[in-house]
């Protein structure tokens, strides 16, 4: 049997053949063809607002697949390259805490099953389902209702209106770094990637606005919310959006202001229809961002604050509520390190 030589436009190099082994397409550079290259599928099942910030899984022939093919890793690398280091650190911190929540939920379930007879034990898949979807089954143990798959981090640091009223003020801030499900954290990481360019002007202003708006958003949830529990960075992110809205209006960038205003309005309307969405926290954070921008920012926005950010934070820390909050935060971190789970059981600070 004779072999017919392949035409020049379909010849492949050795590296391309290895790449094709995994089923990847060919780029124009490797084939010489005029057809556009195949960059792989978009994120399966992702909504448009998630696909845009998280990007696409891009692998071409001739490249060995590695971490550069992971969408979130690509965005972190891009933020680091653009010197948006604070946003990159916040993203890694939130993702790490969410992974730790999943591990703690599985550990708590294993501990519960070890103390129960075989017919009352829950399958291990329950912990994975609770971690991904945020559904925590409640069982009766020693006469008390207990969500066995809830992580110790959530019990000690999530927003709990009853425990905050009892003095655990640290939850107003720590709840901003925890999330309830995979969709929740992906949505917030996507929004964090969207507002990341605001860090370019001043990291101090960006971080201060995020923290203050997160606390005020949780205070709004405490006084006006209808639920007891809440987690998420939405309040701080809405505060950054509110700050930017004022900065754009002062800079007379009307077109950019209208685009951002429509996007913010759509987000708030969507929050009214999503089940379990703490829209009061979003509104509180947004209004706080407005107030901070009106009080301390010049027309140039983040680049030239009227009041130095370290002085502003020191002023807030010296107020009576600020002193009580910092004291409660330091004590809570110490107690959580020495006795994990004690804060969730109602430890009085």
TrEMBL record:
GO molecular function per UniProt: serine-type endopeptidase activity
Ranges annotated as spanning the membrane: 84-103, 172-193, 205-224, 230-249, 270-296, 302-321
Location in or out of the cell: Membrane
Membrane topology: Multi-pass membrane protein
Tagged with keyword Membrane: yes
SUPFAM superfamilies: Rhomboid-like (SSF144091)
InterPro entries: Peptidase_S54_rhomboid_dom, Rhomboid-like_sf, Rhomboid_protease_S54
Domain of life of the source: Eukaryota
GO CC list: membrane
Pfam families to which the protein is assigned, alphabetical: Rhomboid
Keywords, comma-separated and alphabetical: Hydrolase, Membrane, Transmembrane, Transmembrane helix
Family statement drawn from the similarity comment of this UniProt entry: Belongs to the peptidase S54 family.
Protein name: RHOMBOID-like protein 5 (AtRBL5)
UniProt organism field: Cladocopium goreaui
């Amino acid at each position: 049997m004779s072999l017919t030589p392949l035409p020049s436009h379909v010849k492949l190099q050795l590296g391309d053949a290895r790449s094709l082994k995994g089923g990847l397409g060919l780029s124009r550079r490797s084939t010489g063809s005029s057809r556009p290259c195949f960059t792989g599928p978009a994120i399966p099942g992702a909504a448009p607002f998630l696909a845009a910030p998280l990007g696409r899984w891009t692998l071409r022939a001739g490249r060995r697949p590695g971490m550069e093919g992971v969408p979130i890793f690509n965005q972190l690398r891009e933020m680091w390259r653009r010197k948006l280091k604070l946003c990159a650190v916040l993203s890694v911190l939130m993702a790490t805490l969410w992974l730790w929540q999943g591990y703690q939920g599985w550990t708590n379930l294993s501990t519960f099953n070890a103390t129960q007879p075989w017919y009352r034990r829950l399958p291990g898949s329950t912990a994975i389902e609770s971690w991904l979807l945020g559904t925590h089954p409640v069982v009766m143990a020693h006469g008390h209702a207990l969500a066995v798959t809830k992580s110790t981090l959530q019990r000690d640091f999530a927003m709990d209106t009853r425990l905050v009223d009892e003095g655990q003020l640290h939850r107003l801030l720590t709840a901003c770094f925890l999330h309830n499900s995979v969709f929740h954290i992906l949505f917030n990481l996507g929004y964090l990637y969207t507002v990341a360019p605001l860090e370019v002007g001043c990291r101090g202003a960006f971080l201060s606005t995020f923290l203050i708006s997160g606390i005020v958003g949780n205070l709004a949830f405490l006084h006006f919310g209808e639920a007891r529990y809440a987690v998420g960075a939405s309040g701080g992110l809405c505060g950054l959006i509110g700050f930017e809205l004022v900065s754009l209006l002062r800079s007379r960038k009307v077109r950019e202001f209208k685009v951002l205003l429509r996007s913010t309005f759509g987000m708030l309307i969507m929050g009214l229809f999503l089940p379990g969405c703490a829209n009061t926290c979003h509104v509180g954070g947004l209004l706080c961002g407005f107030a901070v921008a009106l009080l301390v920012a010049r027309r140039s926005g983040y680049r030239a604050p009227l009041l130095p950010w370290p002085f502003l934070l020191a002023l807030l820390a010296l107020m009576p509520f600020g002193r009580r909050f910092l004291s409660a935060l330091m004590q809570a971190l110490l107690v959580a390190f020495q006795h994990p789970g004690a804060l969730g059981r109602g430890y009085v600070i």
